[in-house]
Amino acid sequence: MTAWEYIKHLFKDYIYIYDDVDTAAAAERIKGAIWFKGPNVWILAFAIVLASVGLNVNSTAVIIGAMLVSPLMGPIIGTGLALGTNDLDLLKSAAKNLLVMVLISLAASTLFFIISPLDLVNPTELEARTSPTIYDVMIALFGGLAGILENSRKERGTVLSGVAIATALMPPLCTAGYGLAHLDMHFFLGALYLFIINSVFIALATYLMVKYLRFRTVTGINETTAKKRNNLITAVLVIVLIPSIWSAVNLIRENNFERNVKAFVQENRIVAKRTYITDYTVQKRDVQLSISGEPLTDELRTSLLDKASKYHIKPSHISIAEHTFGMSQSEMDNLLEEIYTRTDTEIEENAALIAAMQSRLDQLNAEIEALREQVSAANPESVEPIYPEEF
Predict the structure, then answer these.
(1) CATH match for 12-220 among 1.10.443, 2.40.160, 3.40.720, 1.20.1080
(2) Most CB within 10 Å of its CB: which of 42, 80, 251, 371?
């Protein structure tokens, strides 16, 4: 055996999976998990309310706990299995139960958000489910692949729990319920689209793995029917993919734009000797700069906008909020001149006042001296001298 053959054999030994899967048992398990009757309905409703509480209070831990409880993936994986094995009866049952699941989830979450008194100013966990991208497609696809493979292997582990958390089927339905409760179509449509992405690509992953693992087909289909089915699947995938790709492109653009703004602010934080960029905010393609210090001159403003252009930030997208806590040099010079002028005037006024007071004091001393001489002349022995200092 050559080295290359040895490597191929070793590699195949590690990735070969057919000896460790039981497709017949997997098919039975999946078929048994699609039904929503009795306890499953109540478990789903309780899990939905639990997830809604987590979303309402921005608690990631509660949301994860709800996803572990939820039996949501059954009908979706069942749909993929039905498509892969040409089982029309299973497809009808899976689609019916998927619809029931969605209606129960929307009803429970909508009712919760109607009666909930808490309405967060910044519901980050809810908002995170309203703008799906191609990355959510990848999560659903690879999560679905892991899920069906876990269902198919002979010795099952805890992978399904991780898949349930990663694909996050429940939060979008809860967020859609929030949108219905508050009549907010942004939340409802965005979250519902995320749920559709997750469902479609988990089902697609199941379909692909069912074909790869060679599950037993229920009925054969002719070439024309198979072609129509494949065309329909392709059309659905394209319809679902296009908005997510567009969202991902916008997400990347916004991220790059924010990175450019951050670099621009860091490099130009000191605008002038006594003028600084103290803060900034970015909303999509618009930037607001908070500038403190001396007021911006037209020259400084033009220079700052020119520098922003080098970071691919258009001047028309920049607004400047000035917070002046100091004075310009000209204002300082005017203030000092005013202080000096006022001081000189006050000194002159004070000097005139002092001179007038000195003159009056001299006059009083003269009058006192005259009065003392008169008293002394009238009775020289009984009158003590009066000195101005003692007076």
Answers:
(1) 1.20.1080
(2) 80
